[in-house]
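Below is our example:

___
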Amino acid sequence: MTKYLILVKHSLPQIAEDRPANTWNLSAEGQVRARRLAEQLERFGPEVIVSSNEPKAKETAEILASHFQLDMQIVSDLHEHDRSNVPYLSDHTFQASIREFFQKPDELVFGSETANQAYTRFYRGVHSILNEHQNKTIVIATHGTVISLFVSRLTGSSDLELWSQLGLPSFVALDLHSNTLIVRSTIT
């Protein structure tokens, strides 16, 4: 039986411009979408649910864990690229900052870690989970930037292109035996 690593970009948050994005919770619509996401993931037979420590990812993972009647584990290395020191940005400024972040992975251009630092941290977190739960289908509720960094380096695809295609919520499913991206889907 094929086993999968499923990386879930958290569901739609309630934006609070006066607070850092890493403190945002899910919106009511985000909770509805997370339940739809759970239905979409049934075909993969999740056996382990893990989350970053950010509220919007934890809430997404809690909905998934409840749906699949599984416990949820929190792993700190799975959080988003650290930009807790960045105020709320207009969409145009945010998009430009993300482009530069991906284009200059060794430079600190946005937030308090480079793309390469975020990737290394996230990679370490993912591989600790894979080592702990060998031969199981694992769902990790996390964030778009780190998903894009991880998947692009695994598959050779464009990190910026993947990032721009990930909705709230969305997921990518990777075949653990061949390390190939087999599904990318956004839930609306």
